[in-house]
């Protein structure tokens, strides 16, 4: 019943927007004309930014911290910017997530960022009730067919970034064997795996990549360093000399395994060479960068500029939305040159990176 | 009157101790205790109030499941696994629409109970036939349930964004809720399941022969055996019963708002463990569990508000933990005090007795 009510509101809102815009069809008449066009979300007053973090929150040295960096940057430029933060806990229900968002909106925050795809459903339910609030979901998606005009889904071409570190790993590997550790076996993490494999194969055909996932569906896989460690240990003992992880907080276990086996590892999301312990960093040869900070910053800026981002916004290689790091000088000059060449090819569209392994 | 006082005093003291202890933690970590107290004791918004009522229904079902085990002398730490098993089976069954309309609700509840009962029986049977501690086997079964559920949903479910969910519950089987607070969302219809489980629990344990047998076995297995109760049979039956109730935990949310199942968005892991704590808090009494569930749901519901005041929401976990610990200690203190008072009363009466017959 409640769902029906929200759906009605959503349809009514979009229907209103449709009539308000009227002539959606006279744009170049491709398939986009079918989707109703949205009016720009009207924000009342100055932007006030609230960030709702995923499990782990600020201080995870990865995903959430990256979003915070984007917020800090925006605040640095506009010191008067009013901000608030909230954090998800491990075992919370959908209603609690919704309540977090509604609470921010009721308190006058008109720019709300949900960090992590777990906010997709809740934003979808909450957004129609607050038409004058601009929402964004990092890694988000629209779970139903009703378009939400005031929601931006900030997605990343993780496969492209992973392609680059895959190529770098293949070029640096001595054994010709690489490993991949995923936190949870879902379509998002499979994008990392697919890109990594494709990159390795492109740089050095015949490179063997073995993949393993810590959990099949339990989100615990992103916060389980012991699980990450045993997964990586298995890969190293099977002959892999470089392991790439896309496992959030479990990654520190992967680095520990690299230290103990005296092998190498690749970080994810942020430049993990900079945040890892002194022992670990000697083994982190590069990191796949996912610029959640840029996406968050861009979104806040778009609200300040009066035209909030809406719908799907993909941050790809060409937008600097993903990339690779060279901290610690582990990658040889030759490797960097070759990886950069791949980057140019991907940006030019000459190399297509798959999304599924 | 005196009994009521002794029953109510410990939980009240426990809550006060917990609030003081949490305030102390906040002050030590550089926060403001007054803003914590004023926020946590504030009247929740209408929406939050409804969330609290909804949450308490699931917490209480979970607590009753745990309490059935406790009264039998079994530590069913596997409520979580049975809850997952029941949910998975129910969500696949309910979403399939094999039975249509409102009847689907009833059928799905039966499936949830059966799945939970079957899953719990594994631990029960292992205990009786092989002497495996139900704690050990249930903990392991918790992991197996979660992994199995993940596998099944990914294999037979449908894709939603980056994850998989079970087929959605047909609209004809979605019951209307109760409008308790006007202007706020409805309270879930299957809140009544929690009430039914509570009443059933009270009736079964204190008004039936089976309940008497169960409590007797819990108090003293040897005495039960001597009086002709089949202890092994009782273990399996009560484990299954506990599991059947555990299978129902997610049902209010499933029919009330979620209509599907899949981790992590469309599920709430951990309710099975919350139930154990609340059963402990409520001393395995129906009223105690009802109040304890509301208290836990209330604290969790206020956590978002706390966060907006700049207080980490994890302090609520501290409060909940201290409440349980304090209540256990407080009840023990009261029990000893009561025992001593009774002894003194008896002694006093003995002293008053005329003594002439004893001498000479």
Description:
The complex is a heterodimer of chains A (357) and B (360). Chain A has helices at residues 2-21, 63-77, 94-106, 120-126, 158-172, 187-203, 225-237, 251-261, 278-281, 292-304, 333-348; strands at 48-53, 82-87, 111-115, 134-138, 151-156, 177-184, 208-215, 242-246, 264-269, 284-290, 311-315, 322-324. By secondary structure, chain A is of the alpha/beta class. Chain A folds into 2 domains: 2-156 and 293-318, 3-Layer(aba) Sandwich (Rossmann fold), CATH 3.40.50.2300; 158-290 and 326-348, 3-Layer(aba) Sandwich (Rossmann fold), CATH 3.40.50. In chain A, the strands form 2 sheets. A 6-stranded parallel beta sheet of chain A has the order 2-1-3-4-5-11, sandwiched between helices. With 360 residues, chain B is an all-alpha fold. Chain B has 2 domains: 1-39 and 309-332, no CATH class; 53-303, ABC transporter involved in vitamin B12 uptake, BtuC, CATH 1.10.3470. Helices cover 72% and strands 2% of the residues of chain B. Chain B has a two-stranded antiparallel sheet with strand order 1-2. In chain B, a hairpin with a 2-residue loop joins strand 1 (158-160) and strand 2. The radius of gyration of chain B is 23 Å and the shape is globular. In chain B, 49% of the residues are buried. The mean pLDDT of chain B is 91. The interface between A and B is large, with 38 and 47 residues.
